[in-house]
């Protein structure tokens, strides 16, 4: 029958057309993926808050609108230190935070931000990307249904603002200092009294002598806090030589992304991380320039060798305890120590020698 | 007529199907763009040659196969120092090389690799991305139908291998050293005899005393050259504190790319650049560890302050001449000097202080 034949022919045409069309679009999966990110920071936090904005913009542009990421700041989700749990549970798909915030929950997360007397930012990036660091980090996060990636470096943290000069280890004994986390534990080992105080009360606490010293971040964040007006000694770094933030991803969300969006997302993390580091360097340089010209009485000091050695020893003992208690902790700490050992030999004759030869 | 009606209905269905299909693919431009890249390096050159391979792989994966980049090494195109011209003319779409290779052609390209006593790698990345450096580089390349992007850093270059120790500026007078380019001009200003020698003849020239010293790159490239066997003094950096390579793009090719592929390509450049830097750090650390344990007699030296100051002065005078001759050169050099000035103040109290406090 003509009618049947025609239908058959038309059907064949339809199939052929659709096949051709499909073939030219064989790789395109044009579904739009909408992900939600929770960040630890408040809205419009400079540097830290720019990282996820830059990341989301890049992911959107590179995916031609197929990957859309909504960012909720702490004012929205009300749980700045709940990011780990919210991404783990799937309440959020992504997070931007700092790994050492989770050490109370998962002790081994401590090692992926920055360690006292540890690697500098670039030494640590080399460890992450070429020295096995990234794999170790995934090993720590994987049992919690999470992937974790370097999320941008806020540069070296200064040692903090002190009202009195530190000349001997005795000057640290009984010293009341706002310094949270593991660095506080190190200071406690040498007799200081570490404490944590809410950001809004820091200035008054230092002014009134409730505390004798505090660490915050570095010039880019410290300038607006005004500590330089009430504590003349600005100590150089020892406890966070290169603080890395992190992007967290819910593992199930990750697995459901098509391959090209996986690589677009991971690449957006990497670029945003690197951008955050150069931005932090840039802002620290600008803020230090402003701060040191507006407040020429700031006295920059480094702890004397005696104090450094005592802090190093205390740090080493604490880490030794952690390694003794947990096999994976030992593996991570050994990996960091041997990488740092080898890398620092090179840093010493390259970057450090270059910087020193011009100031000698 | 039933027949006609059916055909009409089927046609409507076809159109509807195709329209629906087209709508779900509205943003996809599935044309495959095939670009050719010429690199200055020979095939399988480590670190330098990995940059464009990593870049091409990333661009392909993120574009889901829509951006395919073929890489021709120097053995293929036979013109290692012709990359600028070949990309300018459109013979190649892309290039990977070093900006200072073009200074004979376009003098202002000199300033975008690494300058004697200039910015370290990270200081320079901050300048590129936040201090106006990238815009100045585009200004230099734009009249030549080219875009130029940072293409990866090979880390600090060592000052080179010397048969005799350099204690005073007199020790440099008459010294025959293989050191090409602008750094050679600086050395000539203080009385040395810079020369260029093909890589294959370097070892014999140094062994036989045709030259007294040479600079090559750093441990990762120097180790296999074997210079440590015949020249015991390994001097620290002064002339290339962070050598940046570059990706070149033919402007017309760039303009014809759809927006998402533009951003994918630019992002692939950025990630490959950053990867090359961490890889260079990693390889230098490994090679230095190997070299210093296998050849424990290597004597690492820094030029004494007298020599550094003489070289700095010579460098400053040469740059002053260049700034006097060309307005854009002046603008670039002023931008670098003021950025370095501000940034180094911060580097000194952050990174340098941190490194020094642990070796004091």
The number of domains of chain A: 2
The biggest chain-chain interface is:
A-B, 87 and 90 residues
What is the CATH architecture term of the largest domain in chain A? 3-Layer(aba) Sandwich
Q: Helical region count of chain A?
A: 13
What gap, in angstroms, lies between the N and C termini of chain A? 99 Å
What fraction, in percent, of the residue positions of chain A are helical?
Answer: 40-55%
Q: How are the strands ordered across the major sheet of chain A?
A: 7-6-8-5-9-11
Structural class of the secondary structure composition of chain A? alpha/beta
As residue ranges, the low-confidence spans of chain A are 19-27
Global morphology of chain A: globular
Strand content of chain A: 5-15%
Oligomer: homodimer
**Pattern of helices and strands of chain A:** HEHEHHEHHEEEHEHEHEEHHEHH
- Write down the CATH topology of the largest domain in chain A: D-Maltodextrin-Binding Protein, domain 2
Rg of chain A computed from alpha carbons, rounded to a whole number of angstroms = 25 Å
The CATH C-level class name of the largest domain in chain A: Alpha Beta
Largest sheet of chain A: 6 strands, mixed
Beta-strand segment tally of chain A: 11
> How would you state the average pLDDT of chain A, rounded?
93
> Could you state the CATH homologous superfamily of the largest domain in chain A?
Bacterial extracellular solute-binding protein, family 7
